[in-house]
Write a structure and sequence with these properties.
3 strands; 3-stranded mixed β-sheet; mainly alpha
């Protein structure tokens, strides 16, 4: 199966996208680290700001918990919990406040029934299957010259790509909600707000790069399938 992993399609399509994804990861870490040393004038911690945003949106039932790790922050809609990482929870930096407000934005999205969230949840079960089975099915189908397996793998991988594409507006909207709330409530002002925006913009690029990798991988699978037919 070496032809599958080292074919020209992989080098031309996937490798450049992977390099962009690596750069995006570097950029978000470096941007976060830069603004982790810039602290908000009001002295509020990320956890306090998160609580303020939730309460102002009548989400008093959503809890805030600390979770281990660095930038492992996330919102768990099933448990209705925002988990803030050790590097964010007690920090008063504009980077941490921006990240925490972004997660609060996700909680607000769920509460108002934001449509892209519903679409993402609808695709999620198939996307989970696609993330584990799609490529093995395509490989097996190509090796066995069994077209139905290849087609099934491509369809499952397409569901994964669709999930990632739908995730983009979800993430962009959460960041926009976060920045608007921080500005309107005067939690951050001027250069502080610009710093938070740069952090969230860098984080958004990781989602864009990850989606691009998957799109290029899907295109590669389709081209490989077509090549085997010729």
């Amino acid at each position: 199966m070496p032809f599958f992993y080292y074919d020209s399609y992989y080098l031309v399509l996937v490798v450049p996208a992977l390099l962009l994804a690596l750069y995006a990861q570097f950029k978000v870490k470096s941007t976060f680290n830069k603004y982790a040393s810039v602290h908000g004038r009001r002295g509020q911690t990320a956890a306090q700001v998160t609580r303020q945003i939730l309460d102002s949106n009548n989400l008093t039932g959503v809890k805030i918990e600390r979770v281990s790790g660095h930038l492992t922050d996330h919102y768990d809609p099933r448990a209705q919990v925002i988990r803030l990482s050790d590097s964010v929870y007690d920090s008063t930096s504009v980077a941490s406040i921006g990240v925490a407000a972004h997660e609060a934005g996700h909680a607000v999205q769920h509460s108002v029934g934001y449509l892209p969230i519903k679409l993402r949840n609808a695709v999620l079960p198939v996307a989970n299957i696609g993330s584990t089975l799609a490529v093995p099915l395509v490989i097996l189908g190509l090796v066995m010259s069994f077209e139905p397996l290849v087609s099934a793998g491509i369809i499952l991988f397409s569901a994964l790509v669709l999930f990632q594409v739908v995730t983009l507006p979800v993430e962009f909207n959460a960041s926009r909600r976060a920045l608007n709330t921080l500005g309107d409530a005067l939690v951050l002002e001027g250069e502080e707000l610009k710093g938070a925006k740069r952090v969230l913009s860098a984080a958004a690029m990781t989602y864009v790069a990850s989606t691009l990798v998957s799109v290029m991988q899907l295109l590669r699978l389709v081209l490989l399938s077509n090549r085997r037919r010729d």
